[in-house]
Design goal:
4 copies of one chain form a homotetramer. Chain A is mainly α. Chain A contains 11 helices and no strands. Chain A is globular and about 65 Å long. At the A-C interface, helix 3 and helix 4 of A face helix 3 and helix 4 of C.
């Protein structure tokens, strides 16, 4: 159903199962995600479940799944260059490095290597989706290490970007895997907050520091 | 994964497939839903995909999937009465009628009978979930016609409520099927709006009427 | 303008200045509010300013300004009883106590007495709004101490409720003062997060405890 | 209060009154705004007031107030060029035209001239804020006609941009006037929808056209 809604076409083979794996990869990440904390704080204020989930969904921003679109565009840019994959990937990496940006879809602060990427490629292999775009993504991994001067392994967003293109979907749908896939995780967090935590969650003064001016007289 | 996140337990049988059917039933309903229009208007104003989907998600309110919780509670109320199903269902129907309320999960303005309910029960039968709660839901259908004086067939929310309980989930999660299941539909609407429609969607003056005071001088 | 939009009428006297005082009272409360934290977490994920503010706005829930509506309804209930104020207020207090609920608009965990309530009544006195509803609110304060067995002073929500009625506004607009008034505070928090904090705000593992099952093998 | 929260400083003169005029200019625009329709559709689905307002707030997107930031940046770019105002404005106009973009803050489909811009400059004159940035904005109006080949009058966003800078605020706060100022309008629309309209607002089939494939058999 998700494939139909995003592509307009009925799955002809394993598209549905590949989509499912992508959604599962995006479904949950504990409280290490701003979206989850937003949803829990809002839930603690006494709102309906869907409203708290929506607050979390807003938080699936550029720093939180936003790299999938960008990584897909980088793959398309390399593909359009007409160069062999290693040269094409290296050229795109250099352009991005020279603009002072990070390579979207490669490297991860916490997960290195990112186990979700490896598992997605395994599933893709089983389901017949380890094709042209996945191979190009691997060429980027090889090129990135050289261009950026340190190992940059494909992370979950990079793998999603390659598989988005394998499924024939539009790069503009990069964030869709998180928007659809994270919904169950957000529902679970919100429900837990509603049923197991005290209302009106507090950030805790010990986590707050104030740097502003001292008290001022108001005219 | 959705079952694990909502129940805390790993599926032991067909829970995952039953959950999938429930999510598919909630996934899309054309533009006949306030949530979809909210998402499309917001998308037309120029915002990231996830933010427009969130606007739609907020709109999964009491009149839009909210009957699942209430219908599940009605089933539990009947079950707790200790009466045989027909009497138990009739007693709950009478209480609701006497309070001037509608029976949640039964009857539908557009879909009568609601094909989603019938199909969900078929799938439930195939997967081994046509159990105690589904039978009680059918007892409500029989009792409702008599108590409310007109045929009230089980709608999609009523079927979801019964299957929520068959899956052992909490009634407070009634709206979760819509929150999770409608995400792909909202993503598709937003993406279509972003890529195929003009920015800044207009409601059309021909759809607007004004009933307020005439122009007034402002001091 | 806010008075015109909420009442439909042009201010004839000091309604605008009274409204302004109510909005100022609601405008900011540091990070001691779930709404603010929701907005900041979402902002840190990389979204447009208005989307992060919206996440915070969702969080102005039943536990966060929701008492204004309820307190206004309590005042109306007492007023409708036909009893003298002290007896009317005491009767409503007893009904609420007997239902096991808290008296909306009275008492505050942090602020006792709540300086915002006192200041609002001072402003109301200056502007000619210290009328029938404010006096009734004070009768509730006197009755509440006796009925609930401890001092329960009028808090900011209780003062807002009385002044909502003094302004002739509908009790259903109780939360409106927070929705309108907190917008500047949320904008300021979001802008500070966007410009002075690191992206992808983290809750900090030291603030997290896990109570679930141990790792389980997945079939 | 809004000035304090956005600038960090106490107003020393008429900053508060100038801010108030900017908020009033942004407060309401009938249903000719996607944000308003989003809020009303969501309200019709049965959600708390603040959640429906939040759905509208999300819709204050790039096409809906987003020009204020961009117009302020254009003013700063011209100012930084060191050229006299007419040449500086013309150079920025040419750059924007050559990139195929529209000049932010100038021209309006419905309002030509935009009465809000003229009135804001009048108020600014009264309050002592018709300074360097307002004059530069007028130089843009003159240059724009020549560079873009048709009259492009300062619209409300253009006036807001100039006054944002007159107030010493950060260009990144451009959308803040709408986020804060439109809150009363959204509250009023939501409350009207909740109290005067039928639940579950429908877009009306006569407003819908379908262009997709015919019914297809599903395997």
């Amino acid at each position: 159903m998700a494939y139909l809604l995003l592509s307009g076409g009925l799955p002809e083979g394993n598209e549905g199962r590949m989509m499912e794996a992508l959604l599962v990869a995006a479904s949950e990440h504990s409280v290490v995600a701003p979206s989850v904390n937003a949803a829990r704080f809002v839930a603690s204020a006494g709102v309906p479940l869907q409203a708290a989930v929506a607050a979390g969904t807003i938080g699936l921003g550029d720093h939180h799944g936003g790299a999938v679109d960008a990584a897909a565009l980088a793959l398309l840019e390399a593909d359009g260059s007409g160069l062999p994959d290693p040269e094409a990937a290296a050229a795109v990496c250099r352009r991005i490095r020279d603009e002072g940006a990070r390579l979207p879809g490669y490297g991860h602060v916490l997960h290195d290597p990112d186990p979700r990427a490896g598992r997605l490629f395994e599933v893709a292999d089983d389901l017949g989706f380890l094709g042209r775009w996945c191979k190009l993504a691997q060429a980027f991994e090889a090129a990135a290490g050289e261009v950026f001067g340190r190992p940059l392994r494909t992370n979950v967003d990079g793998a999603m970007a390659a598989l988005l293109l394998e499924l024939g979907l539009d790069p503009g749908l990069g964030k869709a895997f998180y928007v659809m896939g994270r919904a169950p995780g957000l529902v679970a967090h919100v429900f837990e907050e509603q049923t197991r935590e005290r209302p009106y969650r507090d950030v805790g003064w010990e986590n707050v520091s104030y740097e502003g001016p001292d008290a001022r007289p108001v005219p």
